[in-house]
Design a protein that fits this description.
- With 384 residues, the protein is α+β, with helices and mostly antiparallel strands.
- The protein folds into 3 domains: 7-53 and 152-249, Probable tRNA modification gtpase trme, domain 1 (Gyrase A, domain 2); 57-144, 2-Layer Sandwich (Alpha-Beta Plaits), CATH 3.30.70.1400; 301-384, Aminomethyltransferase beta-barrel domains (Elongation Factor Tu (Ef-tu), domain 3, Beta Barrel), CATH 2.40.30.110.
- 20% of the residues lie in helices and 33% in strands.
- It has helices at residues 12-17, 37-46, 66-71, 128-137, 163-168, 173-180, 219-230, 240-249, 289-297, and strands at residues 7-8, 21-25, 28-33, 49-52, 57-62, 86-92, 100-108, 118-123, 145-148, 153-159, 187-192, 195-200, 209-215, 236-238, 302-309, 320-323, 326-337, 342-350, 359-364, 367-374.
- The chain starts with 6 loop residues before the first strand and ends in a 10-residue tail after the last strand.
Length: 384
């Protein structure tokens, strides 16, 4: 069955033929799960999970003025990025208070042979069109080219303790060594399953792993090679459901939930995403910078916390958080968390109620249930 109103990734046919339950997500036809969200979640925590994240926007920014242009627009510095570095950033505007258009990853690639800078942005599927439009409105007359490469490429995330071994097993020895040598939030290029790929040691699950960008024509071949190589090691194809429970356990904010257009990034723990000064200490200027300076100078009234509930039924987005019968916050995300074996939520609550160990209540389906404030993230992967 075709769904012409929805966008489809190059892997949509594979998902459908392998039992993926397809849903509309940000205008894309995407698999929410195959058999069990819990089984997919556990696979990513204990072995490996692979995710089709081709719906996310992939933008190429090139030209002699590309670095300076992005430096003037993003909340993270770009001018001092070395080749191969990836940074988490915000895309902002001056329309207060709705100043945050999206959160994104910015990658400085190796310069072209003639020395021309090359950079990439990865943005959320739900915000891609407006971010692209906003950036294009601010393109200089010359010196910068912006190309939306979302539809000519695919992106595959392989996450979990065995993810690197599985991917490197599909590479020549030198490419595999280069991938293994990546630090967190760095990137390289390599050939995976015969396809040239851009590879970043990034992810959205709290696990080690990589995100692999290949030409759309090679997507199914690369996906199937990873799937076949990983099956003996417990790898599973995973849908959006497991991706969400994994990121929740890892305490990672999601645009539209923890992060909103009018959010205070310092209240939700995203201080690292906003750099208000250059390395020499002089002030940076970017859209919304004045608002963020005011926010940084003022302690937020509400801050992001983790809540562990006493029942397995989760408090969902928008549920009230109470103390002594009075509302002191709202849940931003919540789910049953398989690794924890209980329900957990992230919430924005009044600062006076944010200390770890504080007893609060949450409203779950009109019933008041006890909860306890815990440090974020709920889960951190073992090191070493």
């Amino acid at each position: 069955m075709t769904h012409p109103a929805l966008l489809q990734t190059p892997l949509a046919g594979w998902h459908e033929s392998h039992g993926g339950r397809m849903v509309d997500f940000a205008g894309w036809r995407m698999p929410v799960q195959y058999a069990s969200i819990v089984e997919e979640h556990v696979a990513a925590r204990t072995g490996a999970g692979m995710f089709d994240v081709s719906h996310m926007g992939r933008l190429a920014v090139t030209g002699p003025a590309a670095r300076a242009w992005l430096e003037s627009l993003l909340t993270r510095r770009v001018a001092d990025m070395d080749a191969g570095r990836v940074r988490y950033t915000l895309v902002t505007c001056d329309d207060e208070p709705a100043a945050i258009l999206d959160d994104a990853l910015v990658l400085r690639e190796a310069d072209a042979a003639d020395g021309t800078p090359r950079l990439s942005l990865v943005v959320n599927a739900s915000n891609r069109e407006r971010v692209v439009a906003w950036l294009r409105e601010r393109l200089p007359a010359a010196g910068v080219d912006l190309v939306d490469r979302t539809f000519e490429t695919a992106m595959i995330a392989v996450q979990g303790p065995l993810a690197i071994d599985i991917v490197c097993g599909l590479c020549a020895a030198d490419d595999g060594a280069r991938i293994r040598g990546l630090r967190n939030y760095t990137a390289t290029t390599a050939t995976v399953a015969g396809a040239r790929a851009a590879i970043g040691r990034t992810g959205y699950t709290g696990e080690d792993g990589v995100e692999i960008v290949v030409d759309a024509a090679a997507a199914v071949r690369v996906w199937e090679a990873i799937h076949a190589a990983g099956l003996p090691h417990g790898l599973r194809a995973c849908g959006l459901g497991a991706r969400d429970t994994l990121r929740l356990e890892a305490g990672m904010p999601l645009y539209g939930h923890e992060l909103l257009p009018d959010s205070d990034p310092f209240a939700i723990g995203l201080d690292l995403a906003v750099q208000l000064t250059h390395p020499d200490g002089s002030p940076r200027d970017f859209p919304g910078a004045a608002r963020f300076r005011r926010l940084r100078a003022t302690p937020p009234a509400r801050v992001r916390v983790g809540l562990v509930c006493a029942v397995k039924r989760p408090a969902r987005d928008g549920s009230a958080v109470l103390r002594g019968g009075f509302e002191i916050g709202r849940v931003t995300s919540g789910s049953f968390c398989p690794t924890l074996g209980t329900a957990a939520s992230m919430a924005l609550v009044e600062r006076e109620a944010a200390a770890a160990g504080t007893s609060l209540d949450v409203v779950i389906r009109d019933a008041v249930q006890p909860a306890r404030v815990v440090p974020l993230p709920f889960y951190s992967r073992p090191r070493g």
